[in-house]
Specification:
mainly beta, 5-stranded antiparallel β-sheet
Length: about 600
Amino acid sequence: MGDILHHRLSDLYNVIAMAKRACPQCHVLCDERDFRCGCGYDFAAADSEMRLRARREAASEKPAPHAVPDAPAGKAEAPSPAESPRRPRRWAPLLAVFGPMAVVFGVMIHLWGHVVLDNASRDAVSEADRKRLEEYMARAYPPKKGSTPRLPERAGAGTPDDPGPLRPPVVLVRIAGAESDPVFVPDGKGGGGVLWIEPRGSRGNVVLAKRLLPTGEISWSGDRGLEVSRGEGRRRDLTALADGDQGVMCIWTEERGGVPSVMLQRLTWSGAGLFPPGGLEPGSFSKRQEGGRVARDRQGRTLVFWREPIVAGHEVYFQRLDASGKILGPANGTPVPGVSGQIGILDVLADPEGGCILAWTLPQAPYARFLKLSAEGKPVWRQPATIAAIGSPVSWLALQHAGGAGFWAVWRCGDERPSRFRSQRVTPAGEAAGSAVDLGRITLGSEGVHAALAPASGPVLLLGWVEAPSVGPGHARFQRCASGKCAWPLEGLQARKVPGDIRRVACLGDGTPKSEFLVALGEATGAGRVWAVRTGGETGSELRSDCGAFEGMSGAPDWIALAPDGKGGGVVVWRAPAGPGFTAIAAQRIDRIGIAGGWDAGK
C-alpha cells in the first residue's frame, strides 16, 4: 500500500512539474499539459506510437496473441483504450497537497491504535490487581457470623499471589490532650510533615512537628517532635502548605500579652528552620492579627494574608517575603483595597500565572467573593467576583485549580437542614463560567457535617462529606462532577462496604481516565477504625481496605487526612484517642491496589 501511494504521488509531482518542449513540425515551444500543438501535432498520439514501437523491439519476432497488428502505411495507429494516455485530472494539485497529510494522518491512527491497546492492557492488569485485593481481604476477614475480624499474624514482605500481612499503622506521636486539629503536608513521595499544637499547662502551648519518611520511619527530634514556636503563650489557627521541594511553610496565630499576632516559619525536609527561631513576624505586634493564610507564587515568594479589626469589622492585610524571609513590603503590611467588613472565612489560592486568588465571606451573607491579586498585592480584576449561595450563608468554602481554566469554588449553603453543596468555576478574567452546579444535598442531619474536596484533581471535582445526625449512625457520601455534570444523584453515592457509624472523611483523586478516587473514612463503631475505600468511575464500584488500628486506640478518629504517595496510592493520617487523657497521631500507607502497610515500597 505504501509503494502504490508513493508511485501515485510521484506521478502527480511529475505531471505538475512538466517542462515545455518543441513541436517537431513547427518548432514552437509548447506546454506538454496541452497535449496538442497549434499546428495540429498530437503529442499524445506520438508518445503512444513511440511506446508501442519500443515494446515491439523488446519482444520476440512472433507477436503475442494479444499484440496489436501493425497499422497500414500512411495511417496513424490508434492506441487501444488500455494504452491511451491518461490526462491529469484537475484535482491533481489538491492530491499533491493533501496526499502527504493523509500519510501523516494514517501514521497517527496507527500510533493511536498502539495507545488504545496499551490502555487496554493496563486496565486488564488493574482488574487482576482488584481480584488479588478482594481475595486477600476475604482471607483476612472471613465472612463468619459472630467472628471478630483479625489481622493476619504472619509477617513478611509477601508474594505476588499473597501481598503479605496488614501491617499496623505507624504512630507518630502521643499527645496529652488536643487543642486543635493537626496539619499534614505531603512531600509527594509517600511521606510528609505533621504539625500540631500541644498544651504546656499554665505556660500555654507550643507548635511541634514531625516528619514521616516514605519508608514509614519518623524523624525530627525524637519522640517529642521538633519545636517550631518558642516561649510562653497560646497558639491557634495553625495551617501549612508544601514549600515546593524545600519543605513546609507553616503559619499560626500567637498571643503575647493578650495581643494576637500572625507568625510564620519555613522548615526544610531535614528539619532546619529557615526563618528566625520561634517564627517570623510578617506584620507588627502592635495590632491584633488573626486568620493568617499563606501561599507561594511561581517566583518562590511567600504571600501572607491576615485580618485586623477595625470599627466596621475587619481589614485584610498583605505581606510579601522572599525565599530567605526578607520582608519586601512595608513592615506593618499593606491593606488589600476593597476587602473589608465582618470577614468570616478567609482563604487564599496560589495562581499558576502569578499572584494569588483571595476568597472571603461575610457572616450571614448569602455569597462569597474572590479577588485576583498580583505578586505585589495589587488587584488584577476591576471588581471582585461573586458567587451566590441561594439565600443561605456560606458555612464552608474550598478552592481548587481548574486545570488552566481558572479555578473552582465549592461551598456549603448554610448549616441548617436541608442544605447543599454547590460549585462554580471562575475564569482567569474573574467571570463566572456558566451557572452554579449542585453537588450534594444534606437531608439526614445538620450536626457534624464534615466535607473534604479532593486536591489537585483539575477539571474533575471530587467531593466527600459525612452526614452525622445527632441520633443514628453517620453516612459517608461522595460526588464526582466533570464539565458541569454530576455523575451521581444529589444525595451522593453512599459508601456501602463500610456500614458503620462514619464520622470523618477525606478524599484524594488518582487522576486516571476512570476518575476513581481514594477515600479515607473514620468509623466510630466500637473502638474506632479507619478504612480506605477506592471508589468512583461510572458505576461507583468499591474496594475496601483496612488501615488497621494502632496499639491503645480506644475511640473513633476525630481528624483524618489523605495525601498522594506519588505511586498511585495514598497515605492516611489520623488522630484518635489512645487511653485516658491521651490522643495519638498515626499514619498508614495504602498502595495502588489497596494493600495497607506498603512502606517498603516507598523507598
